[in-house]
Structures are given as structure tokens and as C-alpha cells.
């Protein structure tokens, strides 16, 4: 009988004993219980996190926006899942008889070596924490970072994802975010310049426009208050310009500006107020002028 056959027979004999199967059964049961308790812990932790934010919403002292609440809840749930999974993995290794202390010591040395080469990653994570907890911007906000402008679709500890109006998603490392413009914090202002021909009655134009502007908030809920006619903005060669402004909900200024242009155009047409257009004046020299120029 060869050495391999002897080794196999010995292992079969060991597995055939009752004590070995009892030990294996105990290990499997412990691993199963660890997984069950970890799942329950994560589930209860999620419930607690959501409950905490519900209490914050009812409080008159502490208020958070819905967008920031969604961002923080998602972040805390992810952190809870990662930490619970890590400790569950450590307990399973101990149950299997692996020396966790030696493993962690070796991992610490490796982590220290990797840390020197991953300083940008650490910077991204730290910056991500400050972005979220200082509420610089939240999921759903319209922002501009450097040359990128769009809506925030995801904020992580390492990266931020921005989707622009044409559909492209820009993924930016948090550590590279130095300056942010947030368009969703305060109300926006829409403005429209209306060109009026010099031949038109400016007093009549201002009167009909003022009457129109007072009626528009009932039609457009994006308007915070009625639009305001500021008066004559400029006097050009062929026309004068009236400026209209309107305070709107955040990021709704472009939509309201387009609607204002349409409403103002219909109003001017209905009241017979001319809108200027390019004109070409042709001058025909008479025979007298030609003789004078030749003489």
C-alpha cells in the first residue's frame, strides 16, 4: 500500500468518528448563527436609523431636507452593513480556528504600506464625510463643479456622480472637489428682455404687461411671487428694451423665462404693440443730385 493510500485511509477513519462530526456540526451551527445574528443586527440597525430621522423630522429644533436625509440614511446604512459584515467575518474565522490576531497584525502592516501609496483615496473619503455632514450639496441638487454642471445622482465616501441635462454622468473623486456652486439652496430669478419698437406707445405696453404679470402666478406654481416689470433697460438703435424679472423656485428660472417670453409675445400681439424687426432703407439719388456730384 502506497503512502497516499495510507494517508487517505487515515483521513477516512478520522472522519468516521462521532467526535469529528460533532465538531463539524458545531462549527457549521456557529457559523449559521453568526450569519443569522448579523442579518438581524443589520435589519434592526436600519430600522433604528430610519426611526432616528423620523424623530428629527418631527422635532421643531432640528430640521433636515428630504434630499439630505436620503443621502445620510443611505450612507449610514452602508457603513452599518460594512462594519457588521467585517465583524461577522472575523467571528467566522475564529470559529474555524484561524488565528485572527496574527492575521490582523499582518493586515495592519500591509495596510500601513498601502496607506502611503493611497493618500488620495484617504483624501477622497475624508472630503466625502465633510461634504455630507456639512450639507454642501445633496442627492437631487443642481450644482456646478469646475466645468461640470448637472444634477447630483449619488454621493459616496469616495466619489460624487453628476448627471448633466444631455444624460452624461460625470464621476468626480471627492478629493478633487475644491469649489462648488449649488443652485438648489435658494430661490432662483428669471429675467426676460422685451424689445419694443420706438413707434409703439410705451405707456400702453407697460400697462398691458403689468396686467399680464399679475395674473401669471395663478397659472404657474413655480413662481414664488408675481413677476416685476423693472422698466426700460436699454435704448438701442431700432428699439427700446423692457426688463421683466421673476423669483422662482430653485432651478425653475429657465422654465419660467421661456413661459414668460411666450405669454408676453401673445399679449403684445393681442394689444397691437409692434415688436421691432430689421429694416432696410433704400435711397434713390435724383438727376439733380447726380449733376451736382458731377459738377
From TrEMBL:
Record InterPro entries: LSM_dom_sf, MS_channel_1st, MS_channel_C, MscS_beta-dom_sf, MscS_channel_2nd, MscS_channel_C_sf, MscS_channel_TM-2, YbiO_bact
Keyword Oxidoreductase part of the UniProt annotation: no
Protein name: Mechanosensitive ion channel family protein
One of the record's GO molecular function terms: mechanosensitive monoatomic ion channel activity
Main location group: membrane
Keywords assigned: Cell membrane, Coiled coil, Membrane, Transmembrane, Transmembrane helix
The species this protein was found in: Cytobacillus dafuensis (Bacillus dafuensis)
Family annotation (Gene3D superfamilies): 1.10.287.1260, 2.30.30.60, 3.30.70.100
Coiled coil location: 195-222
Domain of life from the UniProt record: Bacteria
Mechanosensitive ion channel MscS C-terminal domain residues: 192-274
Family indicated by similarity: Belongs to the MscS (TC 1.A.23) family.
Subcellular location: Cell membrane
GO cellular component, one term: plasma membrane
Amino acid at each position: 500500500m502506497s503512502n497516499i493510500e495510507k494517508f487517505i485511509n487515515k483521513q477516512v477513519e478520522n472522519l468516521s468518528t462521532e467526535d469529528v462530526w460533532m465538531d463539524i456540526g458545531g462549527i457549521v451551527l456557529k457559523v449559521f448563527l453568526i450569519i443569522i445574528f448579523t442579518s438581524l443586527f443589520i435589519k434592526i440597525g436600519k430600522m433604528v436609523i430610519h426611526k432616528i430621522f423620523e424623530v428629527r423630522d418631527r422635532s421643531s429644533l432640528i430640521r433636515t431636507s428630504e434630499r439630505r436625509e436620503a443621502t445620510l440614511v443611505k450612507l449610514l446604512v452602508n457603513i452599518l452593513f460594512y462594519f457588521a459584515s467585517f465583524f461577522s467575518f472575523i467571528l467566522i474565522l475564529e470559529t474555524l480556528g484561524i488565528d485572527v490576531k496574527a492575521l490582523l497584525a499582518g493586515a495592519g502592516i500591509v495596510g500601513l504600506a498601502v496607506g502611503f501609496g493611497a493618500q488620495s483615496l484617504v483624501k477622497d473619503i475624508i472630503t466625502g464625510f465633510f461634504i455630507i455632514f456639512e450639507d454642501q450639496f445633496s442627492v437631487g441638487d443642481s450644482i456646478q463643479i469646475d466645468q461640470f454642471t448637472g444634477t447630483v445622482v449619488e454621493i459616496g465616501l469616495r466619489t460624487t456622480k453628476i448627471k448633466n441635462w444631455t444624460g452624461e454622468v460625470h464621476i468626480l473623486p471627492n478629493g478633487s472637489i475644491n469649489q462648488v456652486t449649488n443652485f438648489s439652496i435658494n430661490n432662483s430669478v428669471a429675467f426676460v428682455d422685451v424689445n419694443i419698437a420706438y413707434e409703439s406707445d410705451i405707456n400702453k405696453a407697460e400697462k398691458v404687461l403689468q396686467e399680464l404679470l399679475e395674473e401669471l402666478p395663478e397659472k404657474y406654481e413655480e413662481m414664488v411671487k408675481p413677476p416685476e416689470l423693472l422698466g426700460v433697460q436699454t435704448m438701442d438703435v431700432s428699439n427700446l428694451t423692457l426688463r421683466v424679472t421673476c423669483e422662482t423656485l430653485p432651478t425653475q428660472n429657465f422654465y419660467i423665462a421661456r413661459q414668460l417670453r411666450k405669454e408676453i409675445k401673445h399679449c403684445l400681439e393681442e394689444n397691437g404693440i409692434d415688436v421691432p424687426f430689421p429694416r432696410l432703407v433704400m435711397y434713390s439719388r435724383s438727376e439733380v443730385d447726380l449733376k451736382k456730384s458731377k459738377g
